[in-house]
Amino acid sequence: MSDFITSLTDRFGPEAITTGEAIPPRYRQDWAGLAPVLPLGLARPRDTAEVSGILAACHAAGVPVVPQGGLTGISGAAHPEAAGLVLSLERLNVIEGIDADSGTLTAGAGVILETAQEAARDAGLMLGIDIGARGSCQLGGVLATNAGGNTVIRYGMARDHVLGLEVVLADGTVIDGMNTMLKNNAGLDLKQLFIGSEGLLGVITRCVLRLHPLPPARATAFLGCADTAATIALLRAARAALGPMLSSFEVMWPSFFHYMSKATGLGSPLAGEHGTYVIIEATGFDATFTRETLETFFEKAFEDELVEDGVLASSVKEERALWAVRESPAEYETVLGPVIPFDVGIPIPRMEEAVTAIEAGIAELFPTARALSYGHIGDSNLHVVVNVPEAGRDQPHGPVKAKIYEIVRALGGTVSAEHGIGMIKRDYLPYCRSPQEIAMMRQIKALLDPKGILNPGKSFDEEAGA
What we know:
Largest sheet: 7 strands, antiparallel
Shape: globular
Distance between the termini: 30 Å
């Protein structure tokens, strides 16, 4: 393979191709926690033409390619192959323009999500995708994993924001699907093949994203409920009372909130302890109306005994304080140690059963384990992180995953709500997809990537053993 790397370097230059120990450590793994792998080489193309040329060369030589974005995924989709090339899209980081009339943003795959959010905001518009890793994740990765986040209940998953894509196929063919129109019903909507495909079918290089009017008003409440049943009733009431103003509905169970509020020193905005803790955010176009609507809803929920206690933020500083514990997972390594993270989907009526079964099941396996539960319950998304203190850095991934995913399967859920399948969950894909569905996925993969060079062994790839 040295001849291949030499020819690639001669063609694209050493500023685009890096090899050996010169490859920085950050490209050798993502956030999934898998052991670092030194790839055959690192390619950092500067434009779509170079992405096309690199993929064409890899296709001809049969060299595997692992696309990488901001490396914030927890499923191992961006984990390198020792015999393959890492293809970083970070240099495709130009925002090409914002069309206020059409409500669109056109950008390269390497643009940081927060940068895109700020550009939209500067134009008086809003990009409705928002996740905790906004400061480091890239648009290409967000779309390739169909990311969710805090505002899915109002604006939908990543795919709901995409109008057009430019994609490079495994053999270097460039698919220019940079549609800018909300309505375009001509033939198959090919972009949907690549959104959420984790780089197995093609490499996203550019995108056209739909923007929304920027709501100038926001009101935030932090509430304590007796249990999950009351929380689900609160969600139902919030949807009825707030309608499209409801932009976030985040839930933290005691396992998460009590531990993280104390471990981080952030504390609680409420005096007592409760069965669940809920953050509700409402957005609108009139500050007084937005706040009064949320206040009225809170008062009614308290009268109906859906809420035991709560506070409303009166400033941006207070809003941030109410969100602080919910946005503290970046502190896991410091306050909890190595964790086994889960991103699952559970039917809302079975959420209480799921949390109870998962936390009890982990305690039965490992009595000293900590299992922390929280999530975007409004879109059926449950996050769980597990730490077994005595295991140190050798956390027992196998038995913990088997226990949790079996519970998820029994409750009719999905092993991936918003982080993809990657390497971490590939053997559990049959828990939520039928053999016929997986067979069709593989047929599409074989058609678009006949040599199997794109992200081999990930998700539904034949090597996954699913």
